[in-house]
Amino acid sequence: MKYQISGKQIDIGEALQTHVKNELGAIVQKYAERPTDAQIVFSKVAHEYVCESVVHLSTGLTAQAKGHATEIYAAFDDCANKMEKQLRRYKRRLKDHHKERPNPVEVFGGASYILASEEGSDDSEPETLQPIIIAEMETKIPTISVGEAVMQMELAHAPVLVFRNEKTNGVNVVYRREDGNVGWIDPRNSA
Fold first, then answer.
1. Do 107-118+133-189 and 2-98 have the same topology in CATH?
2. Contact status, residue 40 vs residue 53, Cβ threshold 8 Å
């Protein structure tokens, strides 16, 4: 598994990096059979250290966790405990979905944009139809089944997930509805 361990305006020592690799590696190996990479970012907010981790699995699943504590090692341990809890909850579902999958999930790149909101918007016609883009980043779009997409959306606590349906090879969307159910948009079936 590839690790990317960094700090936002704080130094990350070699001992902490070794601790992160050993602990997170053991957790991920225990609950996920084929991890691909992990990104761990440490930062400090006021008197607390914050540890954010994102682990990508070859099944297409992305697990995220965030921990807080007054000491940097304790912040990582909190984050690791949350990651372990997530992966433990989904281990059975992961095995059921992926036991027949011989190869890792295929992903392709896509652009993700954050658009600026209108200040004092009152539903009137905007001056221009070109929105202001305030952030642009690349995101991964996995080729997975609908069930796997719902599982990944739940694991990431995301309101929406865009994916390529492995059966139809079309771009689909799953999203959390206001009534708590999950919606699925499949443009191929809209006629």
1. no
2. yes
Which regions of the chain are under pLDDT 70? 33, 35, 59-60, 92-131, 133-137, 189-191
Alpha helices (H) along the chain: 14-31, 72-98, 146-155
| Beta carbons within 8 Å of 105's beta carbon, 6+ residues apart | 58, 59, 60, 142, 143, 144, 148
Per-residue model confidence as pLDDT tens digits over 56-96: 877 667 788 999 999 999 999 999 999 888 888 777 665 55
Please give the CATH number for the structural domain made up of 2-98. 3.30.160.100
Q: Give the pLDDT confidence score for residue 172 in this predicted structure.
A: 92
Residues 6+ apart with CB under 8 A from 24: 3, 38, 40, 53, 55, 80, 83
CA-to-CA separations, 153 to 16, 60, 112, in angstroms, rounded: 30, 11, 16
Q: The tokens of 109 are what?
A: 């790149």
Question: Which pair of tokens denotes residue 43?
Answer: 């930062």
In CATH, what number does 107-118+133-189 get?
A: 3.30.505.50
**For residue 115, how far is the Cα from the chain centroid?**
21
**Phi, psi of 94, rounded to the nearest 5 degrees:** -60, -45
End-to-end CA distance of the chain: 44
pTM, to two decimals:
0.59
Q: What is the reported pLDDT for 142?
A: 85
